[in-house]
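Quick one, probably user error.
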């Protein structure tokens, strides 16, 4: 379901970009409408790129590695707490 949302949102952003390109004023260099059009196109491309990045799953391996590291840290903390409990029991 998560990937489907990204496909839909990317399609909507791409459709908005295609629809707006003929109406944007890109002819007069340095004018406010041209600056606005350039920024608008850049933002639309960033949205499309971010959704494409999620669809392709580029960060999946990094996410798995971070999950593994977090599990290891949690295990180490549990071992540390259990070790201290054992040491307190020996002192009694």
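Nope, works fine. Designed sequence:
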């Amino acid at each position: 379901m998560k990937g489907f949302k990204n496909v839909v949102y990317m399609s909507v952003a791409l459709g908005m970009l295609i629809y707006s390109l003929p109406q944007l004023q890109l002819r007069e260099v340095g004018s406010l409408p041209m600056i606005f059009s350039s920024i608008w196109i850049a933002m639309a491309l960033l949205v499309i790129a971010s959704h494409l990045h999620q669809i392709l799953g580029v960060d999946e391996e990094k996410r798995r590695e971070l999950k593994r590291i977090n599990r290891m840290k949690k295990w180490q903390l549990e071992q540390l707490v259990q070790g201290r409990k054992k040491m307190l029991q020996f002192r009694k």
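The chain has three helices and no strands.
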